[in-house]
Amino acid sequence: MELTLTPMTAQELDRLRGPLVQGYAEDLVAHRGMTPEAALERSSSQIRESLPAGVATERALLRVGRVGDTEVGWIWATLPAVATPNQAWIDNIEVHDEHRGRGYARRMIQLIEAELAQLGVPELGLNVFGSNTVAIGLYRSLGFEVTSQQMAKRIDPAG
User: Fold this and answer.
1) pLDDT tens digits along 17-64
2) Which of 35, 44, 51, 110 is most buried by its number of CB atoms within 10 A?
3) Domains and CATH numbers, the chain
4) CB 78 within 8 A of CB 50
């Protein structure tokens, strides 16, 4: 069976929001050196601000990836804004653990690209943590290119 994308329901977002907030907070701890408490607060507030009306948030494309009746993952893209009038953005993409390694992330990106193309959006961007080499390889294989790069170094307070 082929993977399809369907609009996310409010109930699905309610179920997926907790793991999204927690996963992003864990990334902030691991990659930005934040305390778990500060990371959880930042993660919660950023997602709340980005999706103020949940699945009805203007410019948010929240889609669930399905193979038949089975949910295999989901993708969240944001349509262009005034600051970036030609670029949509992948805010998050997830393939559930038990469905990884089957090409579903690739297919979800291809399908969201097709939807964006129908809307006349000419470019798609995303962020990825530098240590996520599997995702980086996927994105490169789909034609994404590095357009900016941030670097950080932890400083030992003892000198």
Assistant:
1) 999 999 999 999 998 889 999 999 999 999 999 999 999 999 999 999
2) 51
3) 3-8+54-141 (3.40.630.30)
4) yes
**Is the distance from CB of 65 to CB of 3 less than 8 angstroms?**
yes
Name the residue type at position 73: G
Task: Name the token pair of 67.
Answer: 């193979």
> How would you write the chain as a 3-class SS string?
CCEEEEECCHHHHHHHHHHHHHHHHHHHHHHHCCCHHHHHHHHHHHHHHHCCCHHHCCCEEEEEEEECCEEEEEEEEECCCCCCCCEEEEEEEEECHHHCCCCHHHHHHHHHHHHHHHCCCCEEEECCCCCCHHHHHHHHHCCCCCCCCCCCCCCCCCC
| pTM assigned to the model | 0.90
Which residue shows structure tokens 């889609």?
A: 63
Structure confidence at residue 142 as a pLDDT band (50, 70, 90): very high
Q: What is the CA angle 71-74-80, rounded to 5? A: 150
Measured distance CA(67)–CA(51) in Å, rounded:
26
